[in-house]
């Protein structure tokens, strides 16, 4: 066993992945399943039936107290003051320059209690930064090590969870809403959220029930385990950003074309710089593209116009649904209109692609 | 799986020699390591091949890999069915997933390739 393997963290479901014959890879310091039977098969299965994802490695924080609402509103870009209990929203933590520290989902547990769900690779960074930027009266608890998370995504997920929780629980649960439920006697927090573009749910529960939950969900007809490989191709088909690839501290939501997740009518950290960037405009903007054929572009490939660099790929992969390469890139705004042709330098014969607004995959009505 | 009638390279290509022609592909080990193959850049018919040099690329969902010519010679025919269905390499690396048929310029080169048991040993040693 190499040193790297020894220092990788294992999720609560590690043994289950080995049992299932998963191929394991390091991800953000965790030993994670990249695939079980194959990335394409798992991807298609999620779009057609239901895929089960081990997401225990993500971070969760609880912020509580009378000043919690005010603090959360000041550190995240999404609007918080009008969130009722049972609502969750996607937004960003920004630094003073408007750069993206992380993307996250804010859950309003009650008037004075919030859960923030953050990325696995940024949990520690976020924890330190948040604690430095909230008032002394707001309680902060990192519950990441005490929280197991599974995502069930796909057209069958509602039916499956409806049966497991007792149908009424899910009735009328809209997107970006959450509720409490019970599966096989295990208490769960269940949100209608996800990273695949399919109808899906995220389940949060106490880790001692991990094996039981995993097995119960897999026993449901139509559910297969899905690894990080397919999770990446699924989110990329939707054009969703991946922190560290498409968004990071050197980019603002203006440049990332994600201002719809920023509520400018409130004061929050980074707002002023963001207002400036919005006014001035940015040289580049995060844009989607679809390659000419199966040959795919990868992160860091440059986009060229003759000898001029016009952009850089931030995420690129093969799309199992389109059967072509797809990706996201920061591209000079003068090249970023949909339908425009770009040339991607792959160090070989090059890849022609067309600028396209995501989602690249559209479910047939 | 390592068929006994083939020869193998350290870059995980296989060769089926018949007279002064050979059929080339990548091994079961290679296709498994790559995962789902999504694209193959095939050599062109008539291309000159030099043993040990890149003759194309194979891409999987996450990565790209060079394919190296196992022998020197020239390409007679390529398996163009792989253009739209490269997954045939995953499903059938030694039959339907054949990559190209070539004319061998130096028959002695094949003697320096590994046989099935040699390749098996090589795989074990690389674990």
Could you provide a short overview of the structure?
Chain A has 365 residues and is an alpha+beta fold. Chain A has helices at 3-7, 14-19, 39-48, 68-75, 123-132, 157-165, 210-219, 228-238, 271-280; strands spanning 23-27, 30-35, 50-54, 59-64, 88-94, 100-110, 113-118, 139-142, 148-153, 178-183, 186-191, 200-205, 223-225, 284-291, 302-305, 308-319, 324-332, 341-345, 351-355. Chain A is built from nine helices and 19 strands.
Properties at a glance:
heterodimer, A: 365 residues, alpha+beta, six-stranded antiparallel β-barrel, 19 strands, 22% helix, B: 127 residues, six-stranded antiparallel sheet, 4 helices
- Category by helix and strand content of chain A: alpha+beta
* Adjacency order of strands in the biggest sheet of chain B: 1-2-3-9-8-5
Note the run of SSEs of chain A as H and E: HHEEHEEHEEEHEEHEEEHEHHEEEEEE
Which structural class do you get from the secondary structure elements of chain B?
A: alpha+beta
Low-confidence stretches of chain B: none
Count of strand segments of chain B: 9
The largest β sheet of chain B comes out as: 6 strands, antiparallel
Largest interface, Cβ cutoff 8 Å: A-B, 20 and 15 residues
Average pLDDT, all residues of chain A: 96
Order of helices and strands of chain B: EEEHEEEEEHEHH
Strand content of chain B: 25-35%
Q: Which runs of chain A of at least 5 residues are low in confidence (pLDDT < 50)?
A: none
Distance between the termini of chain B: 16 Å
> Can you give the mean pLDDT of chain B?
96
Shape of chain B: globular
* Alpha carbon gyration radius of chain A: 21 Å
Distance between the termini of chain A: 50 Å
């Amino acid at each position: 066993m190499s040193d790297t393997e020894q220092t990788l963290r294992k999720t609560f479901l590690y043994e289950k992945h080995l049992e299932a014959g998963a191929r394991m890879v390091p991800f953000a310091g965790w030993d994670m399943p990249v695939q079980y039977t194959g990335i394409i098969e798992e991807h298609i299965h999620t779009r057609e039936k239901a895929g089960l994802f081990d997401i225990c490695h993500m971070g969760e924080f609880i912020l509580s107290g009378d000043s919690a609402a005010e603090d959360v509103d000041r550190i995240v870009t999404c609007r918080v003051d009008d969130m009722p209990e049972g609502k969750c929203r996607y937004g960003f933590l920004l630094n003073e320059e408007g750069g993206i520290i992380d993307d996250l989902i804010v859950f309003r547990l009650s008037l004075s209690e919030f859960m923030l769900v953050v990325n696995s690779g940024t949990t520690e960074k976020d924890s330190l930064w948040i604690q430095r930027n909230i008032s002394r009266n707001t309680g902060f608890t990192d519950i990441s090590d005490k929280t197991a998370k599974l995502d069930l995504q796909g057209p069958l997920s509602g039916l499956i969870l409806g049966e497991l929780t007792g149908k009424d629980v899910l009735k009328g649960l809209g997107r970006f809403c959450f509720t409490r439920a019970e599966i096989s006697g295990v208490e769960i927090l269940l949100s209608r959220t996800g990273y695949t573009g399919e109808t899906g749910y995220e389940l949060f529960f106490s880790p001692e029930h991990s094996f039981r939950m995993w097995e119960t969900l897999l026993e449901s007809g139509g559910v297969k385990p899905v690894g990080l490989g397919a999770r990446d191709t699924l989110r990329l088909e939707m054009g969703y950003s991946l922190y560290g690839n498409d968004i990071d501290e050197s980019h603002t939501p203006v440049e990332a074309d994600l201002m719809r997740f920023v509520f400018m009518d409130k004061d929050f950290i980074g707002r002023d710089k963001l207002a400036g960037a919005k006014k001035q405009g940015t040289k580049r903007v995060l844009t989607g593209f679809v390659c000419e054929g199966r040959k795919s572009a990868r992160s860091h490939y440059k986009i060229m116009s003759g000898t001029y660099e016009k952009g850089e790929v931030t995420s690129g992969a093969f799309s199992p649904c389109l059967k072509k390469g797809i990706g996201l890139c920061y591209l000079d705004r003068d090249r970023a209109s949909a339908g425009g042709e770009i040339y991607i330098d792959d160090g070989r014969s090059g890849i022609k692609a067309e600028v396209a607004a995501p989602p690249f995959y559209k479910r047939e009505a | 799986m390592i068929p006994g009638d083939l020869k193998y390279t350290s870059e995980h290509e296989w060769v089926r020699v018949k007279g002064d022609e050979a059929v080339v592909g990548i091994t079961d080990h290679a296709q498994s390591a790559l995962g789902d193959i999504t694209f193959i850049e095939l050599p062109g018919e008539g291309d000159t091949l030099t043993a040990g040099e890149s003759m194309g690329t194979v891409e999987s969902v996450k990565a790209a890999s060079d394919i190296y010519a196992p022998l020197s010679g020239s390409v007679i025919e390529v398996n163009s069915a792989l253009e739209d269905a490269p997954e045939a390499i995953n499903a059938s690396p030694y039959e339907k997933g054949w990559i190209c048929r070539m004319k061998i310029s130096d028959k002695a080169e094949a003697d320096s390739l590994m046989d099935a048991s040699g390749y098996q040993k090589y795989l074990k040693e690389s674990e």
